[in-house]
Amino acid sequence: MNQDATILATLALSFQTLGVVYGDLGTSPLYVFADVFTKVPIESDVDVLGALSLVMYTIALLPLIKYVFIVLKANDNGEGGTFALYSLICRYANVSMLPNHQQADEHISSYRLKLPSPELKRALDIKETLERNSALKTLLLLLVLLGTSLIIGDGILTPAMSVMSAISGLQGEVNCIDQDKVVTISIIVLVALFSIQKFGTIMHDISVLRAINPAYIYYFFKKNGKKAWSALGGCVLSVTGSLFWPVFVIATLAAMIASQAMISATFSCIKQSMALGCFPRLKIIHTSTKFIGQIYIPVINWFLMLMCIIIVSAFRSTTDIANAYGIAEVGVMMVSTTLVTLVMLLIWQNNLFMVISFLLIFGSVEFIYMSSVLSKIFQGGWIPLAFATIFLSIMYTWNYGSVLKYKSEVKDKISLGLLHDLGPNLGTVRVQGIGLLYTELVQGIPSIFVQFLLSLPAIHSTIIFVCIKYVPIPMVPQEERFIFRRVCSKEYRMFRCVARYGYKEGRKEDHHEFEQLLIQSLEDFLIMEAQESNELMILPLIRGENCEETNGDSAYEEHSLEHEISALREAKAFGCTYLLGHGDVRAKKNSLFLKKLVINYFYAFLRRNCRAGTASMRVPQTKIIQLRRTYMV
């Protein structure tokens, strides 16, 4: 019974997923012929059949053969998209621009790649070339950011195009509906669409699929008798072309569902780019407690709505919007073709003939389409390029500034020798409690720690350097979330914790829950450390060497573990304090003018207006101690 329920739930989720992934494809008939025949007049059957044939084979070649049979196989544990492809490449080759990779990341259970064959020399050569050449790393990142920027632009154009195409059907049926009213109604529908986005993805009732069973015709007549017979006249309308209003309603709802699917995809892309350090932090709301991928980003939602209204109001017809829409769609296709080609060479290690065939067949088709849509650059085609430029600039500026800031922190980190000189009390008074000092460093002691020692009259009895880090995989298992290392010897009671999250995950836990998980993981680390130490001490005992001394040390280790855990729990009882370094980033005086412009103004503006790191955990202000410092990059 439970198994059947699970199967039904899976089928229902699969059906909903079709709406999210392919909803846009289902609404294409709303506007494809309207756009085609504004450019080619209908003079004979050849025009109609030729356009229809082009549509059919385009769908067969691109969405079916390319995406269903090839691109979907290049998934990252079920995740797709440009950033998922980029994460695959980053796991195979060290091409990430943010230098915070750790060897321990490769031991995460979902990190490992399933390679189909032993590594070929060709793949190794490409990998080494990518890792050595910083220009190629930057080019790859720009390609990924371009694809993501075009998808965000698509999230603006799809709702405008789909909704306006559906509403424009009123012009042929209702005499009083002119173009102005079409624009007004479209704007009303768009406002309604974006207003309900915060409630999550529209649910689809799959029970209507049971109508495929012709037995329901028998049940219908059995239940209604003569009334069913008289209803046949209404059913005939479904094949006469006179059933306008139901079709209009269905077309409008289909446009809204497809638009919502594209909006959700935009949210997902931005969340992935945030996790991989390529977009300023924004507030993310999870609209489902069951499915982690259903999210809502308020700022982006209202921005998309505003842009959709502006586009509909400015262009007032689907023709110019279609010109813009085509550039965005084909641009994303070309980016995905390039990235999948790289995956085929590096990870799948396919036969070179297959790789070249894939690139030539799909690349040439997409190039032909691109050459066509680019000819409409001045008839609306510039819109996605403008949006792509804006978002590409935002993402690259954020990534560029974040990398420089990280490198500055690595350069300024303090040595263990300084702490040894200060002694276990760190040159100040140690008071009960746990200090969580947040840093982006995965190794070393941040220089901001010295500022806290100089500024505070006392420091906590237990210090934990916490690094929130996103790794290029969708999800990290909870039991593999934290990595602990000891900083200095035991009497210092200082530890490093790297909390790892996947790019699909959201940090849904509040500060209290996070503290509980972190402290429990620290206890587990202390126990594991003591067990490993005891195992090393047993080795001389097996050999019959220094038996009495070994037994004494073992007893001391047990007492030491008990003492450390007791001290940790006592510190926990006094609570946790969050030690944060709020940093300004400035370019050095001898930097180039362009660098000063980007860092001192653009990146600084983004940092001032992005969401604070602790905001997602809802940490009370009374638990935060913040110091300001300036990073010279």
Automatic annotation (TrEMBL):
Presence of keyword ATP-binding: no
Localization annotation: Cell membrane
Domain K+ potassium transporter integral membrane: 14-201, 202-242, 243-416
Entry GO terms, CC: plasma membrane
Entry keywords, A to Z: Ion transport, Membrane, Potassium, Potassium transport, Transmembrane, Transmembrane helix, Transport
Membrane topology annotation: Multi-pass membrane protein
Residues passing through the membrane, by range: 47-69, 139-162, 182-200, 231-258, 295-315, 327-346, 352-369, 381-398, 448-471
Keyword check for Amino-acid biosynthesis: no
GO molecular function ontology, one term from the record: potassium ion transmembrane transporter activity
Similarity comment text for this entry: Belongs to the HAK/KUP transporter (TC 2.A.72.3) family.
PANTHER family given in the database record: OSMOTIC STRESS POTASSIUM TRANSPORTER, POTASSIUM TRANSPORTER 12-RELATED
The protein's name: Potassium transporter
Species of origin: Trifolium subterraneum (Subterranean clover)
